[in-house]
Specification:
- The protein is 30% helix and 24% strand.
- By secondary structure, the chain is α+β, with helices and mostly antiparallel strands.
- The chain folds into two domains: 9-105, OB fold (Dihydrolipoamide Acetyltransferase, E2P), CATH 2.40.50; 131-178 and 213-456, Bira Bifunctional Protein, Domain 2 (BirA Bifunctional Protein, domain 2), CATH 3.30.930.
- Strand 4 and strand 5 form a beta hairpin.
- The protein is elongated, with a radius of gyration of 27 Å.
- Bound molecules: adenosine-5'-triphosphate and manganese (II) ion (MN).
């Protein structure tokens, strides 16, 4: 085969690909379909760089190797040399007139699971090793990349530093959920103490360790030195919640800012979410249009609404009054002090305000120990951002910076001081008012893709009884 530089389909289909027009080029990818007759074959080729395929036209008569042509079926992988020309047919601006084709890999039509189109998302979940080759998952994973990039861009441009917090943690004080144990002990033959308990002194770290449920506590340590930091990494929760919104392994973004109060915190969360969504509207137009067509006819309209409207801000207490006065019957009854369920959150966002809502000042008893106590002694300076279709997408707060008040809360919640002595010390030495929040990356992915199940927005979902791929 003549050696030519490989071009990405993305670049070939760009409006200004004219410098390549009428030139000999190479393209490599996976065959989506092959059709035609005994004179001409049309191959739709996709290399994952863009949702669209490039059409490869083969003049069958002048193409000597028809044994090879027969093997070019859906799913096979080929390398094509040919001339990029303006398309004669409808549906595409340019196409390739093939001169040479090399077959890298066949895909037996009798056995290839993606031979036919139109599989359900449930079925595709069972073939997570192949589903990236579908239009839907190509779009989702490109959007996932763009969103990750936009997150780093937003923080970098705003003077935040990316802090890598540990994945293996020795603290289980966060209390955000059940944890996965990390151990090298022989589970068939556990070392025991004199009292008959497992002897973790003999474990790898000389103590009990787990996979982290959040990078926040360590993030705070960074903020109290670098001022503005963010984390962006995997977190793990061993809860048996088999819902369309929970994963056992998911990614979280947790900015933490010294000298921010709860209002600065809300401003940051709002402008952050708006930036991310405008970035996608600008950079992922084709993929969003595809997802809108296939899954959610209001997707782009809903994304624009986020960018264009001011988020409604009100207290938990006011929200409870609205919910009670609504006369609406909820599955979980509402009264002051209850933790809001997503049906309540969605009522506020979708029925009451018809825009994103930020709720503040939640009862202390339903929130974590590190949230700053309000003067009323009953509520804490929490702020949750609620989105249409999702409910809570961001949870954050101003943090308690007072040493004695924080110690009080820790004891009240039954956390051992010696487990968080290092966290407490930041309030002893140069404490500062500070705030932060956590954004569940896959919850945002659900929102921006319009898909309904969180297992479809991460390449290899981890959920109870599911870790095959
Ligand atoms: P939920 O009530 O939905 O279980 P949570 O109160 O446990 O959420 P936090 O501990 O506040 O959530 O975590 C911060 C963010 O991480 C949440 O706002 C949400 O976006 C996301 N999140 C929490 N748990 C999961 C999970 N199991 N899978 C995916 N994302 C999650
Ligand atoms: Mn939870």
């Amino acid at each position: 085969m003549v050696l030519l530089q490989r071009q990405r389909v993305f670049d070939l289909l760009k409006k200004d690909s004219s410098s390549l027009l009428n030139k000999e080029i190479n393209v490599k990818g996976w065959v989506r379909t092959r059709r035609g007759n005994k004179n001409v074959a049309f191959i739709a080729l996709n290399d994952g760089s863009v949702i669209h395929n490039i059409q490869v036209v083969v003049d069958v008569k002048s193409f000597k190797d028809d044994e090879l042509l027969r093997k070019i079926t859906t799913g096979s992988c080929i390398s094509v040399n040919g001339k990029l020309v303006q398309s004669q047919g409808q549906g595409q601006a340019v196409e390739i007139q093939a001169t040479e084709i090399v077959l890298y890999g066949t895909a037996d039509p009798e056995k290839y699971p993606l031979q036919k189109k139109g599989h359900t998302l449930e079925f595709l979940r069972e073939i997570a090793h192949l589903r990236p080759r579908t239009n839907t998952f190509g779009a989702v994973f490109r959007i996932r990349h763009a969103l990750s990039f936009a997150i780093h861009k937003f923080f970098n441009d705003s003077g935040f530093y990316y802090l890598h917090t540990p994945i293996i943690t020795g603290s289980d004080a966060e209390g955000a959920g059940a944890m996965f144990r990390v151990t090298t002990l022989d589970l068939e033959n556990l070392p025991k103490t004199d009292e008959g308990k497992v002897d973790y002194n003999q474990d790898f770290f000389g103590k009990e360790t787990n996979l982290t449920v959040s990078g926040q506590l360590e993030g705070e340590l960074g903020a109290l030195a670098l001022s503005n930091i963010y984390t962006f990494g995997p977190t793990f929760r061993a809860e048996n919640s088999n819902t369309s919104r929970h994963l056992s392994e998911f990614w979280m973004i947790e900015p933490e800012m010294a000298f921010y109060d709860i209002h600065d915190n809300m401003d940051l969360a709002e402008s952050f979410l708006k930036f991310l969504i405008s970035y996608l509207l600008e950079h992922c137009e084709d993929d969003l249009a595809f997802l809108q067509k296939m899954y959610d006819s209001e997707l782009i309209e809903r994304l624009k609404l986020i960018v264009d409207t001011h988020f409604e801000r009100l207290t938990y207490t006011d929200a409870i009054d609205i919910l009670i006065d609504s006369g609406h019957t909820f599955e979980f009854p509402v009264q002051w002090g209850v933790d809001l369920q997503s049906e309540h959150e969605r009522y506020l966002v979708e029925q009451q305000f018809k825009k994103p809502v930020i709720l503040t000042d939640y009862p202390r008893d339903i929130k974590a120990f590190y949230m700053k106590l309000n003067d009323d002694g009953k509520t804490v300076r929490a702020m949750d951002v609620l989105f249409p279709k999702i409910g809570e997408i961001v949870g954050g707060s101003q943090r308690e910076e007072d040493y004695e008040k924080l110690r009080g809360r820790i004891n009240e919640m039954g956390i051992h001081e010696e487990d968080v002595w290092w966290y407490l010390e930041t309030r002893k030495f140069g404490t500062a008012p500070h705030s932060g929040f956590g954004l569940g990356f896959e919850r945002l992915m659900l929102f921006v893709t319009g898909l309904g199940n969180i297992r479809d927005v991460i390449p290899f979902p981890r959920s109870p009884l599911n870790a095959e791929f």
